[in-house]
Amino acid sequence: MSVNSAGQDELQREVPKMETLLRLFRYLLAFKKELVIAVSFTLVTLAISLVSPLMIEQAVDVYVAGRDVQGLLRLSAAALVLFLIFWISTRQSMMIMEDITNRVLLTIRGELYAHVQSLSFHFFDSRPTGKILARIIGDVNSLKEVLADSVTKLVPDLLTVAGVAAIMLVKNWKLAMAALLTLPVLVVCMFLLQYKSHKLWQIRRKKSSNMTAFIHEDISGIRVIQSFAAEKETEADFYVFSEEDRTSFVNAVRVADLFSALVEITWGLGGFLLYFIGIRIVGAENVGIGTFMAFSTYIGMFWSPIRNLASFYNKIVTNISAAERIFDMMDTPAEITDRKDACELPRIQGEVVFEHVSFAYTDEPDKQVLQDVSFQVKPGETIALVGPTGAGKTTIVNLIGRFYDVTSGCILIDGCDIRQATLASLRRQMGVMTQDSFLFTGTIRENICYGRPEAAEEEMIAAAKAVHAHEFIMAMENGYDTEVSERGTRLSVGQRQLLAFARTMISDPQILILDEATSSIDTHTEMMVQAGIEALLKGRTSFVIAHRLSTIRGADRIFYVDNNRIQEAGNHQELMEKQGAYYKLYQSQFSA
Fold it and tell me: Among 125, 452, 483, 525, which has the minimal tally of Cβ within 10 Å of its Cβ?
């Protein structure tokens, strides 16, 4: 199975930018009513902006030239009213778009998170957790400005450019053409720049993701780092990741900054050409002072939104790489899904049958992890899986829970192919315990009742007592309401393991999987919990993976797994008498 490390850039499908943009803006269509209101306010501000220069022209060429004080006062009063309307409309439009944007981001993040949870173990095994977090958090947040500005700036700026250009052409087409002469140059240069800029921002996103993955991995393994006094080495690695992130950012920003520089240059040239052509070609005597002032204002009104549009275009180029990464993850197919004809699995008895099962990871189809494995387990039977590391023991139990799908063959539970059952109805009837006793941040009560939040107090306490966890829980200051964290703060490794046992017991599974579940418990604790384990196994079909062979001698059958197959099968006594691979493994553990 190929794995993407923290220092390795992620591979990503190339998708046309327009397709990504349209897919992103489609999320806004869910808020049509709010968008119409926001656009209405925006159109009001646009209309006022377009009228303002004409009012200046009217004031200078008519009222000032004609010494009409009353007319000037009336025009000033009207301008004041329009200014207040402009301010209110602008504020309302921005507030509505802020609300829409936040709700869109919530929708995108929710969809992405829901999709990530549907992906198979293979997806999570093949990449660092930090890179997944970078897309769910950082990449989604980076879309905020693009979405908000799409209505509050993009729409009014486009309309402003079109409106100003139309007014200037009507007022004096020669002056208008002079002012707009540099626009084609800007468009061509921006098109060339965006190609380079987009590539650089893609690199920057990947380097930022690498750094996030490294930090997450570093903090998760802080106990190991401090135990080996490796702080200096990890600081050096962190500097390398930080420097790569900084360099990629600087390279991207240098190109992105050229957008605004281009606009300023073409703006300045446009203003120069307006006055040069207006004076030398059209003739200053043929153009009124008010008209020149209006055109000067319109030039600003034209190039200011052009600058905004260039800035918005720059934001799109900058952040479209984030949208591409988000949609790339959304489009990652969930390998394990319910079939269209899948049905609810009724309460099972616990018979498990493997029929010629083979398995290989999808990215390494030629490397068989299991090959032609067949066996039948009766309801209530306890099966122990032993053998060397990497032989395929954990793969067998993962296939039972359909965390992976078989490459060939089939797995039956009570005669039903598990691929024909819904995942929820299958996994609800299974309890899985691993050597990594993960606890959620919250209370002990919440952790034990995680699989059954509706469980009664008596059921929770009974489950804790069965695995001998009740005593140490009650010894704590707040008992079952004691706060614990992901790392199991204030709890020993063995205590965390016992809580995980209680959490599994309260869910009342029909099929139980214990994957090295007692490896973290000391001998004394193991003796205490063994009775609880026996109670947990009673009446349930169980698969127990253990390297400590003393814990599985009482199993109904023991499968010795090696070389992708089950090499030996039988109870402890039968395998010892056979004196095969299991016998040698057992002797190697107890010969000392």
Answer: 125
For residues 180 and 274, give the distance between their C-alpha atoms in angstroms, rounded to a whole number. 9
Provide the H-helix boundaries in 538-580: 572-578
pLDDT for the residue 489: 57
**In the block, which residue shows the tokens 């209405």?**
40
| CA 376 to chain centroid | 40
- The answer to whether 528 touches 467, Cβ cutoff 8 Å, is no
d(CA 421, CA 411): 11
- Residue 396 in this model has a pLDDT that exceeds 90: yes
Answer yes or no: is pLDDT of 71 > 50: yes
- Alpha helix locations (H) across 334-478? 393-400, 423-427, 444-448, 457-466, 470-474
Backbone angles phi, psi at 377, to 5 degrees: -120, 125
pTM over 0.90: no
Continuous H helices in 364-512: 393-400, 423-427, 444-448, 457-466, 470-474, 493-506
Q: Residue 284: what pLDDT?
A: 47
Section 204-216 average pLDDT: 82
Question: For residue range 476-526, what is the model confidence (pLDDT) as tens digits?
Answer: 888 899 888 766 557 777 788 888 888 888 888 889 888 876 655 566 666
DSSP string, 218-268: HHHTHHHHHHTT-HHHHHHHHHHHHHHHHHHHHHHHHHHHHHHHHHHHHHH
Separation of alpha carbons 516 and 520, rounded Å: 8
The terminus-to-terminus CA distance of the chain in angstroms comes to: 37
Residue showing tokens 């306010």 = 41
Give, in order, the Cα–Cα distances in Å from 558 to each of 191, 510, 543, 547, 581: 68, 20, 10, 12, 12
Nearest of 275, 270, 338, 264 to residue 308 by alpha carbon: 264
- Distance in angstroms (rounded) separating the CA atoms of residues 468 and 582: 31
Backbone φ and ψ for 561, nearest 5 degrees, come out as -105, 130
Our measurement of the distance from residue 255's CA atom to the centroid of its chain's CA atoms, rounded to an integer in Å, reads 28
E strand or H helix at 51? helix 32-58
Mean pLDDT is lowest, of 44-48, 143-147, 268-272, for 268-272
Query: What is the distance between the alpha carbons of residues 550 and 490, in angstroms, rounded to a whole number?
Result: 30
**Run of H or E residues at 384:** strand 382-386
